[in-house]
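Researcher: Batch entry, complex prediction.
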Amino acid sequence: MSEKKRRLKLSIPEQEVMRPGNLACQGCGASLAMRYALKALGNNVILDLPACCWSVIDGPFPYSSVGVPLLHMAFETAASTASGIRAALKVLGKEDTKVVAWAGDGGTFDIGFQALSGAAERNEDIIYVCYDNEAYMNTGIQRSAATPYGAWTTTTPVKHFKKLPKKNIVEILAAHRIPYIANLNVAYPEDFIKKFQKAMSIKGMKFLHIFSPCPPGWKMKPDDTIKVARLAVQTRTFPLYEVEDGLKYTLNVKVNKPKPVIEYLRLQGRFKHLTEEQVSTIQKNVDEEWALLMKKIDKE
Amino acid sequence: MFKPGKKINFNSAKDLPPTPASVGDMTHNFTGSWRNLRPIIDYEKCIDCMICWKFCPEPAIFIEKERPKIDYYFCKGCGICVTECPVKCIAFEEEGK
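Model: Structure tokens for the complex:
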């Protein structure tokens, strides 16, 4: 095969900004998300990190594995620090440098929420990225507002699993009428990078919500990361869509023949205890959410 | 391929950077030692689609002469490449065999 002369066509940029040797678990979705993000963002970027898995993955002092400037911040300050960095860069005249706040779901849905809402209201020129692994994974799998119905965590054990739905962060941000909001998934790298590039070209507040599977926290095999992430889209659990100016909804990946939600659930040990009745509740919720979303997309 | 880095040692307070900023990358940390199973590419069957390269979270798969190659210094052995390979040309082998 080696004698064949052909140019390799890659669907995503070849440049590699992130370094290996990081401390992510095997099959980590967040580490893959950072790799794609830096491929799209390039070198001219400043990252700002609240307490989340990535503050461990990056490595201890004096090392770093991202290859770009990175600031470790307190848990609730992701968006406010990014606003500060943006203001400082404006004074220095470095307006082309991108500022990215990179927070987990705890730092976005719960603890960092007021700073995020404030930055959205001021329409700061930053990219706010939330990589959503649906619990506080770094501290030992505690429930967060992003944990979906039925999931096991250490604070919602099998007998008292979470009976409340996941907070719809995209809708909340859409209500702020910010220029760009998108759902991203690590199993769709082309779509992922396209959305990052789009976010870079828009001025104002951008919010990117990444679906990032966590093998130890979701009690699944590390090699199933991409499979589970893909099933989340194919079962309509995590629709890939974007919202411009809070009103214009676009569906990026069409799912004409959805798979039953059980296919997505059964790969994960955190949903193992669910009875058939509870699975059908989840299926019903997924279908209802999808119908609501379709109404918005039809309107345009 | 990433060059393996060196560990940084501070002998005295004078060696420390003036601010707590990172001065090196994590490439001295060979995460390959975490691995129980070693993925091996069968280059006869490989179609160079680069799907393994695309989905490697480390990144521990790099492109050499238009072919994918696994960097065993850093591969943690998660097996995403084994699952995602469309022609099933990557197989796991027990480490230390």
